[in-house]
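Researcher: Go.
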Amino acid sequence: MNESEIFNVAAGLPPERRGVYLDDVCGGDSKKRDEIESLLRADGEADSFLEKPAMQIGETEAHQPITEGPGSLIGRYRLMEQIGEGGFGLVFVAEQTEPVRRKVALKIIKPGMDTKEVIARFEAERQALALMDHPNIAKVHDAGTTESGRPYFVMELIKGQPITDYCDAKKLTVRERLALFTFVCHAVQHAHQKGIIHRDIKPNNVLVTEIDGEAMPKVIDFGVAKALSTRLTDQTIYTGFQSIMGTPLYMSPEQAKLSGVDVDTRSDIYSLGVLLYELLTGQPPFDRKRLTQAALDEVCRIIREEDRPTPRARLSTLGATAETVSADRRTDMASLGRLIRGDVELIVMKAIDKDRNRRYETANGLATDVRRYLNDEAIEARPPSNAYLLRKIFSRNKTLLGTSMVLLAALSISMAGLWIGWRKSVANADRLQKTADRLQKTSDELGDVMTGTILNFALTGETEAAMVALSTARNSEFGFDESLLLALEGMIHLYSDDPKKALEFLKKATDRDPNSFAGWAATFIVTNHLGDYGKKSDALRRIVDVKPRTAAEKLFYCQVRERSEPETVDKMLTEVLKSQPLWGAAHQLRGRARMVLVMDEFDRPGAVQRIEAALSDFEDANQLSSAELTRTQYLFALIQAAEFARDASLDDQAKKWTDQADEIALSLGPVTKTIEGDSFVAKTSLLALKNDQDALRTVWKIVLERSPTQIWGAELFAKGRMAELKEYVDKIEESGTIWPAVVEMYYLADTAATDADRLKAIKAVYESTFGCTEYATDDHWVASDVYLLLGRPDLARDEAKRTLEKPNLISETWLRRCLEYLAEPTPSAEANFIKAAGPFGDRLVSANYHIGMVALANGNRQKARDHFDKIEHYGRMDWWSTAWGYAFNERLRKDPKWPYWIPNLEAE
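Model: Structure:
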């Protein structure tokens, strides 16, 4: 070996091991040894080759003087001390001087490493971190370029230890280590959802700090991250021939191919598996010393080809360190072996399987299996059965198999047609026609599966897969109904957060076929999302008596009717799932229907079993789709389950479901990052479940400060700013929903000069908004409340009774229950109303809101305040009844005489 090769190897060794190595390779050549030791001292390299990312073969450093160091000022950051060094960057503690003073971590290109490719990789890391927002991923604060032209970025300063060191220092048990590990998985899952592969997961890149006494892992150093689908930098990043990125001890076999072109998210699953392996056994699968002494191509061969020992087998090789390893896990070696044996070992070996197709498909999948083990549930990591293998093949190749089915069916139909044409002249044409009919039936069934699969992807938030499948169907010779394809495309746009574009496609669908079940069902779903109950009711009227035929129509039907016909939906989806067990949307919809049945019949025997069946559906959906939409629905269900268990004094169940809800909520990110949508409401509901009222009040303030338009002008009403409220109503008048009209009526009630003017003005708006439909619709619970605010409970009762007599288009049984109370708001009806709501925050919010409104209409202001107070404690932030209950409560608190037009019963 020449001096350069010896230097490169020695630089990768810990200082205490370099002397032995140089003794072996330099022999008695003291001059060669002196030169190499001089280079090593100058380089100051202290990290092991196995503990730093591998560099490109043949790469050299142009050693340049260090121009930035402690005391240097980079922009508004003063460098204080160097705390780390990666493959390409130096990391410093820095003090930010403005606009706030704080300590941060500043990472900058190493001197001599500012080649075009390295700078491109560095910029990729900077952009990768900027894309992500997760409590277990280090946050980026700033980025820029030094005066010498080197890129840098600024991130939060993590004062923590590598996860393995932390676990050993705290002597965490195996179960505690497994629980901590799941947080790391959720962070990696978040990165994957943002299109980023880390490619260098190892203990030094997972630091654990403590917040309020709780361990908080933080994944750092996306320096070798690979973009899956997002363009991270304008400069080209080329992982050249014979180069590897990552750290050998933790890198996957596909990373060790000396080419990075075939690396995907499952490479990170492998590295997570190695990290878990080390957390359990104290050592990674391969021996450090052996890899240290091997040449790079041999290291890569070992990683690619050799089998990994099981964790128990690795424990048997620890020798003198075995006692320390077991003591760090608060057990003895024999007990440690028993703890790791079985499910834990299966989980680890599945994660580090050489065949990536046998690994967990997602980081969440790995975390979920760990959580199953911790909950004493059956894990997924079992020796694969034939059925399992077939299911996985289909799961990995949904689009391909869907395409194949379409093409096969089209080919079959075409061949049958040619065959029939050729044989029509023979006597057995009838028999051949029957064969063609059977082929046509098969093709129809395949088409049903294809369209159902597209809708399944859309409903679970996998919009990209849905668009690919839709394009395949549209470009095939299968002859799909174009109105159905337009309806499916509308649903895809809805779940891509573009409901207005969705309506454009749905209008095309219903114009093309005025009787399109899919088109009108999808229109109902989209208009419900927009809050346009007028159009929603019209759409529901067109499909209310239609029975779905195909799988796609059944999915549409079940999404429309899950709350009003939960038993029917349960049975229908059970049939669908017999033939399509991989449709996550069917599992999710059935789970929601089952939870509605639980809320309707919570006091009957079998509720726990029904909850468990529902949660099993949500778990299956979560395994089949990692989209936020799916996790949010799972979180709602877990909260409802915990509310039930707590009310029934099932403390163990309540804790179990609350802990699971916590885990899902963490994967959705901090509660204050978004203030709209179901995800936000689910996370605030979890705060209420945990009785964290201080946090709820903080979030509510954030809602009011950031986006008053999201609470329908309630904050303006609460503060009595009527001129601004009128401007707000005028501004949103064209939104196409009923809500501006309701807010306008509240405005008119508060500003009218006389009672006669008040009633006249509101009746005019009311009739044009609510009086134009002959059907009972979801908006009528608000319609009655308008009369309650006028102090006219008689008119509210009459309106509720009229609504209940109309043909029923109300899509939720609970909303009809609300109207029944408004039609007869007696003390006994009030007690039954609260009892029917059960322990569920979803229903207690609206129950207390209606009771408060009835009390207000009757001049019982204190009772109204008592019930308005309650609705803020259920965490359903950003809901109409929460927002306006808050607004009315604020007016009552500030002015005991408000509303002036209603006599004060208490004063009399």
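Model: The two ends are 102 Å apart (CA to CA).
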